Amino acid sequence: MPFAQLPRHLINALVASEDRRFYEHWGLDPRAMARAVWSTLTGRTQGGSTLTQQTIKEVYLREHSPIVRKLLEEPVLAPILELNLTKEDILYVYLNRVFFGGSAYGIEAAARVYFNKYARNLSILESAMMVGLLPAPNRFNPHRNFELSRDRGIRVIEQMAEAGSLSRSAADRAKAQNVIVTPSRSAWGGFYPRSTGIGWFARWAENEANANSVPSQRSGTRTIATTLDLRIQAAAERQLEAALRQHAQTRQIEEGAVVVMRYDGAVLALVGGRDYRRKEWDHVTQARRQPGSVAKLCVYLAALGAGYTPDTNVSDAALTLGGRSVRNFDDRYLGDITFAAALERSSNTAAVRLAMQNARETRDVIKALRVAEEVEGEAGDLALGTYQARLVDLTSAFASVANRGRMVVPYSVQRVQDPAGVELLRRVLPARSEIRQVLQPQQADMMRQMLAGVVQRGTGRAADPGFWAAGKTGTTTESRDAWFIGFTERYVAGVWLGNSDSRPMLGVSGGGLPAQIWRAVMIDAHRNV
After folding, report:
1. For the chain, which end, N or C, has fewer CB atoms within 10 Å of the first or last residue's CB respectively?
2. Which PANTHER family match (predicted)?
3. 282: pLDDT confidence band, cut at 50, 70 and 90?
4. Which backbone phi and psi does 190 adopt, to 5 degrees?
5. Which residues contact 341 (CB under 8 A, 6 or more apart)?
6. Beta bridge partners of residue 451, listed in sequence order
7. DSSP characters for 343-392?
8. For range 482-510, the mean pLDDT
9. CA separation for the pair 344, 471 (Å, rounded)
């Protein structure tokens, strides 16, 4: 979108919300930086980046280390960008590149995805809602929670009034504007003869094929051979829907997701939600949620790497951290217990103690297994899983353990051909000796043994399929997320239940319904194999 075609109220909303001194500073805002440092020191979170810094991040530095980027690169590059571009140029680049959620990059794409209109036709409230998405595009997505997104837009309008870019009377009129969000769909489309649930997998496969093809090969008709196993896909859809049909209303569950893969990362089934026709949002590959106690996988792996064994004693005694008590799920505290027993009962106090002793090593494991992009916070956050992660990444981390510490990268595309049958892309699997070792084999083997104990004797007993299995339960505060992720001798699978707007469920824990769904899917998957 050329800058001249962008609504003035959209520009004003962006500046008022994201960088009120944008037209006054030279790329860096010392006041905002000082506020950000102070908020960090006082335990709050407040950004200090200018729109110029955010533009540099979007275009050049997205894959760079956050610490290096914020402390070294942005302070040097932001003034240089200001010397070479006008303020309008910077806004033009930013608004055409930034992610707005819903697979939409750039304001024009976002306007069509959410409101089915051109960006130049956005109303003041619609523009404010677009700007309100930027701090957390997936959380404030109006397809997931319209009221929350609208409230964010009203807050941005208030900021415009405070900044003087909108009069009080105009702000009041803007707040009352009618907003119609278009049904959740993309331009992707597709027809699925067996079930619409395959849409999530098909969409992800096309994105993967495009990411591994040159631009000239992304248009026209192509045939993409994938890793999809229709039998296991049908089982995953059937078992998830049966559980939600029975429990969704009484347990206040809106959504669920299932992914099944082989040890090498080949994704065999992917169910991104309850109804693809109603909501294309994929809770397997797009949603980032708190993993809860599933995150203990990385804490225990770090401790194993530091010399612990399944028989090492660890304290499960009551613990207070930062003036707050660390609670075990059952409010029982057993004193010294074995490392394996602590994992089996998902002891929070033991996990926090381990994370305090091995915080750096735990972060290294999270990074090595690609569980999360950036993990901030203290030991309690690492141990209790209060950071954000995708189901597909968590499941592939468990696959790396199942694979004796060899790195597993999930994939769906095996081969791409053009209409003439010419092969455009073929996945060539590396030899086992060439796969990167991210964990020591003995470290992975001990974790396999301990995760099997979780299913046999611990919180994951409801997942026991009647043959060898290993896994971990996870439940977040107020049952906002419930997980079970694990593996058998043949498959690795993850199950998540929750609500798109993070409303609490009623009495749902990872060792309950998610574990039962996982068990049912695994029993079906292993039939006749």
Report:
1. C
2. BINDING PROTEIN TRANSPEPTIDASE, PUTATIVE-RELATED, PEPTIDOGLYCAN GLYCOSYLTRANSFERASE
3. very high
4. 135, 160
5. none
6. none
7. HHTT-HHHHHHHHHHSHHHHHHHHHHTT--S---S-HHHHHHT-S-B-HH
8. 96
9. 10
pLDDT at 144 over 70: yes
Residue with tokens 């409801």: 462
Residues with Cβ within 8 Å of residue 73, at least 6 apart in sequence: 56, 61, 64
Name the DSSP letter for residue 414. E
Q: Which residues contact 170 (CB under 8 A, 6 or more apart)?
A: 124
| CB half-sphere exposure, 311, CA atoms < 13 A | 0
Q: What is the pLDDT confidence band of residue 421, given thresholds at 50, 70 and 90?
A: confident
Closest Cα to residue 501, out of 515, 517, 481?
A: 481
CB 516 within 8 A of CB 463: yes
**For tokens 């994951």, what's the residue?**
460
Question: Is residue 348 a contact partner of residue 380, using CB atoms and an 8 Å limit?
Answer: no
pLDDT winner (highest mean) among 116-120, 188-192, 216-220, 416-420: 116-120
Residue length of the chain: 529
Residue carrying structure tokens 């595009």? 137
As a whole number, mean pLDDT of residues 88-95 equals 94
- 478, 508 Cβ separation under 8 angstroms: no
Global pTM exceeds 0.70: no
Token pair belonging to 224: 């993409």
Average pLDDT, the chain: 88
Q: Determine contact, residues 493/485, Cβ cutoff 8 Å.
A: yes
Residue 221 near residue 422, CB atoms below 8 Å? no
Say how far apart CA 341 and CA 334 lie, in whole Å. Answer: 10
Residue pair 397/300 in contact by the 8 Å Cβ criterion: no
Q: How far apart are CA 166 and CA 206, in angstroms?
A: 43
In 10 A of CB 188, how many CB atoms?
A: 12
For residue range 312-363, list pLDDT tens digits in order.
999 999 998 877 888 888 889 999 999 999 999 999 999 999 999 999 999 9
Buried b (16+ CB within 10 A) or exposed e, 392-411: bbbbbbbbbbbbbbbbbebb
- The answer to whether 347 touches 459, Cβ cutoff 8 Å, is no
Residue 524's alpha-carbon distances to 242, 456, 491, in angstroms, are: 14, 20, 12
Do the beta carbons of residue 56 and residue 77 sit within 8 Å? yes
Total H helices, total E strands in the chain: 20, 12
* Cα 94 to Cα 80: distance, rounded to the nearest angstrom: 16
Q: Under the phi-then-psi rule, with left for phi > 0, alpha for psi from -120 to 50, and beta for the rest, what region is 468?
A: beta
Asked if residues 259 and 395 have their Cβ atoms less than 8 Å apart, the reply is: yes
